[in-house]
Amino acid sequence: MNNFLKLRTAFTKSIYLIQEQPSLKRIIQFIANERKCRTLATKVQHTSEDSYLEFKGNWPNEEKQCFLQDMRIFINFVNEDEEQQLLSEVEPYMKRLRYEYDHWDNAIHGFRETERKHWYPENRKIIDKIRNTGFADEIMPFVHVLDLSSEGVIKPHVDSTRYCGNIIAGLSLLTDSVMRLVRIDEEKCQQNDESNVQQDYRTQPEQSHTLLASSFHANVLLPRRSLYIMSNTARYHFTHEILPNAVSTFRGQPVRKDRRISIICRNEP
């Protein structure tokens, strides 16, 4: 027993001395982090800059850092069973609707939508999980369910603060897709009681192709069953859109969007 105690003491001292060496300490920390990452591999993960974000154009460093804070992606936010659980609740109603191609503000084509306030208990847990992940306070009671056909698109637009708050969280079901965010003029996206932007639910730039050519932007890969949380500058200083298949690429690789259902939560204005 005495030999065992001596051995344990020597081992403890060795570990302490190793950790005091900066380079070896970093190696130990790296191994610990690797183990932690492997443990979390099947759980919800927040992405890093070089994983699901593609930056285009000349980004000012400060603005890029703000964008990284305000545009977050969580992969594997729900598992396959939870995805089917949500679909089983919304599908019966959605199937009774036709896809629309003349949206009242011309922002969405090939869609059908609804809002739900009450959810089955198991799905309510998922909605609460979204709220706890993306919001400090309560979300708006009605959750938006948007069903986009395989050929449907969401055009570039900026939402108004008049109808919802500074955070939007969207759970992407059934397919991968690519969201593009394009920087717009600071003065044009200022929202206050006297601004024209405030009067509309969404504002669309008149010439989005010109805007894209003259501004820096980001492509964001939204994997199936991921959650995106868009807030503050990402929400109001950039247009956002879901790209059509003809131009839907991420880092040079095509990303085909099939039918997409998104569960969207917002906070109060």
Automatic annotation (TrEMBL):
Superkingdom of this protein's organism: Eukaryota
UniProt cross-references to InterPro entries, sorted A to Z: AlkB-like_sf (IPR037151), ALKBH7-like (IPR032870)
Obligatory cofactor(s): Fe(2+)
GO biological process, one term: DNA damage response
Cellular component terms per the entry's GO annotation: mitochondrial matrix
UniProt protein name: Alpha-ketoglutarate-dependent dioxygenase AlkB-like domain-containing protein
